[in-house]
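Blackboard transcription, Thursday session:
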Amino acid sequence: MSNVKSIKSQKKFSSSIINKKSIPYLLLLPAFIYYAVFWLAPVLAGMVEVFTDTNGNFTLTENFKLMFQSELFDKAVMNTALFAAVSVVLQYFIALLLAVLLSRKFRGAKLLMFIAMIPMAITPTAVAILWKTGLIKDGWLNSILMSLHLIKEPIVFLNAEGLAAVFLIILIDTWTVTPSVMIILTAGLQGIQKEFREAAYTFGANKWQIFKDITLPILKPSIVTSVILRLIAAIQVWAIAVMVLGFSKVPFLVERIAFYVDVVPGVATSEKIAFTLSFTTTIIVLLATVIYLKVANKKPSKGGNR
Amino acid sequence: MDKLNIVQKTVVSIILATMVIIVVVPILFFLTVAFSNDVEMTQFPKRIFPSFSVTVKVAPAENGEYELFYDKGDGEGYRSIITTKNATKLENHFKRQYGVNISGEKLLEDFSATRENGPMEFTYRKDLLFNFKQFFAIVNNSSKALKNSIIVALYTILISLSIGSLAGYAMARYNFKFKETINVGMLIVRMFPVVGISIPMAVLLIKFGLFDTLIGLAILYSIPNIALTAWITSSIFIGINKELEEASYIFGGNGFNTFMRITLPLAFPALAASSMYAFLAAWNDTISALILTNENQTLALVVYKAIGTTSSGIQYAAAGSVILILPALVFTFIVRKYVNQMWGGVEL
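(Written on the board underneath:)
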């Protein structure tokens, strides 16, 4: 009796093996359909918009001309590049420093990690308001600086313009992101076996050499991935800039998109500009990712003989 | 080599303490703002911890009126604020300026003691939720937006989980042609900037009649999240012992049974983590909601709109932000194991 049953179930088992070839495709089908309809179609439709004028005729450059001539576009590009580059470098420099310090065991490490996670966990719009309450003239930042006697008169942070404004946004972003980057790097460092460092130490390597030749290479994968993610996010900065300083104060690429959607909607040309801007931003993000991956992958083959 | 001398130890401690202070102090000040009443908002310097009560000095005046004094904390001491005997006026004053909910009659009754004793101090408890109530009362659409945000997040979870986990299971369990291509494709979808898709998506959703609907928004949020869910679940499915499933087959379970009884419970942590991610993506977004909605705004968008360009009433926006932060914070901490991987531990 039990024999019969087991044969039966084995038949079932083998029949499911025969079907196996089509199973993965069936399982992936919903995702395929979803992406064809809701991802590929809009991406293509977006491209069509970029390469047609307001009357629907094909044009290769018309919308790009509109974009280039649009208000503050050149500044937006400059600011975005500056913001992405400076904030990522600054954040990784500080985070790496902290991570190396933290890689030793000490009391309260868990609590520290817990606290470090908070800024990144806060919704971006809330981060913007958090800092706005600090940066207004009678805000808490001036309160701190005054009570520490670092300044005599309250600073009007929100009047910042040009480079100063970009750096203000960079500082806010650094506050938000650096602790999390530190957590990632610390996690990566803790994966490094102590034996590696001890071996290097016995063979006469100094601390800097150990850092350069052991710590950094092992950390590289987590640095590479997290930098890409940061870069992608940094290129898309906008909410903090708009909420803290207002539209057009510190133009960024995505801030411009929001500007055309939020402030001057409904006009045919502003729609075209928004489409072209979002297309351009996407291309920049993809390019930045590809270039970064190329550069990041080259380094070891240049340096090592492995 | 790992032993630190006392100087190094001190330096390390100071650096760490500085980091904690830099992270925590702005948050404390911000929370205090969210619980501050109108007069506290005009105070400078700002307090780091919120106050829970309001103290006023009251002196009897002519014609049965009372003169109210308040210390703004700016070093000038108590100064006269209003003189009145009107209960409604007093009630409104206490509500608007101090965030104290108390009836005007009760105030007048309290103050009448000053007729005999002369000027007295009165301390009243602040309504700590005052700014939160104000946020929902003053800011357009805010209570609807809170509901919308939750619904959109639930839709996003539903869509990403149902489609993504199937894909994740396929990626983990089967070998097939184009597996690598699909993997790369999923990564591209995940990395694709959300603004790049939002604007063309608006056109598509208008065609489908889904523009300015919650489901339309959820469809957009699901795009990166389906791929993300597939990635998270596949890494878990790989870890689930295939032998367990095979054992289930041998004992007579069919495919569906096995999936429901063995695979799904084991994969539950991954599904939970994926849903929290989907929640966070929907909850935290502003730009797509700005592009894809008019009436059906989400909470993040409403908070964004509430701030405007002026800084008056910023405590209400701050209260709104606190509501926005709480679930985001809780969920991020629950999924923190995955967060670390997400933010940098991902193998490319």
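Lecturer's comment: Chain A touches chain B through 108 residues (CB under 8 Å).
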